Amino acid sequence: MPRKTGFIFCSTVTIILMIMILLPLVVVVLGSCINASLLGLSTDIWSGSRHEIFDFSAFGYILENYGDWAVFSLELALACVVLCLLIAVPAGYTLVRHPFPGSGLIEELAVLPLSIPGLTLSMGLLAAYGEIRGPLLVMAGHLLYTIPFMVKVVTSTLRSFDVGRLEAAARSLGASFWQRLFLVVLPSLRHAMMTGALLVFAVSWGEFNVSFLLNRGQPQTFPAVLYDTYTNQSIQISSAATTIFLAIVIPAVVAIQWLGGRESVDVEQGA
């Protein structure tokens, strides 16, 4: 009986927490497509249809006026993924497989930007590279926040099982460096790179402070659309922008969770 009571209690708490988390998202999504007056927002200034229950015109407004902002943000996030794979994966591999004096300090410094406020980081980048303010500097700011995630995912994976043993076995069979790289190391890091890529994409897509401060003119990144619509537009417009934002980031977050579970299963089976 106590065990059953504990299960019921834990399940109840979990359900309540899920409702508390999901309810605001549901309200936002509904607010993007349901007539504002039905939500008690009769003073909403959006001039879309006021006589129909469902009104999707706010999405058209966002895509028409902020579509290039969304494209810029997607391009930035995808570029961050590519650059993080090219920079952080070799760096993480070197730090674990070929440590050198000071490598531990370098690994700690690599994740230091995560503890620095975006305002401070932005001021530092502006002071050092203010003449290139714009997309390139925004990219630099995003990389400072995303590379640590990729480095940590790669180093943690390399330390979770003995890649060195697999490399030694491949070397004993006559495999060259490039053969070991493409047939042993990279396949061993497949889940880590996929998880890291999704993390990088989600972080870059949702980053606001650095992007807003380092960019010059338009287009801004898509989180700036949320800021602009919530401060200057109606609830329905801002809800539509938020719904589009969530439609991009939620699949990435779900994929991260799924890959994390798959990786745990693969490690257990490998053991």
Task: Provide the fold topology.
Blueprint (H helix, E strand, L loop, with lengths): L1 H32 L23 H41 L5 H8 L7 H12 L5 H26 L2 H10 L4 H12 L1 H17 L2 H6 L7 H11 L2 H36 L1
Helix pairs in contact: 1-11, 2-5, 2-8, 2-10, 2-11, 5-8, 6-7, 8-11, 10-11
Task: Note down, in words, how this protein is organized.
Helix 2 crosses helix 5 (135-160), helix 2 (57-97) crosses helix 8 and helix 10 packs antiparallel against helix 11. The protein has helices at residues 2-33, 57-97, 103-110, 118-129, 135-160, 163-172, 177-188, 190-206, 209-214, 222-232, 235-270. The chain is an all-alpha fold. Mean pLDDT is 83; it is low at 267-271. The two termini are 37 Å apart. The chain is globular. The chain has one domain: MetI-like fold. The longest helix has 41 residues, at 57-97.
Q: Which strand-content bin applies to the residues?
A: under 5%
CATH architecture: Orthogonal Bundle
Sheet bearing the most strands, described?
none
CATH hierarchy, class:
Mainly Alpha
- Overall pLDDT: 83
Roughly what percent helix?
over 70%
Structural class: mainly alpha
CATH fold group:
MetI-like fold
- Radius of gyration, taken over Cα atoms and rounded to an integer in Å: 23 Å
Number of domains: 1
Count of DSSP helices? 11
Judging from the principal axes of the Cα atoms, what is the shape?
Answer: globular
Low-confidence stretches: 267-271
CATH homologous superfamily - what is it? Answer: MetI-like
Number of strands: 0
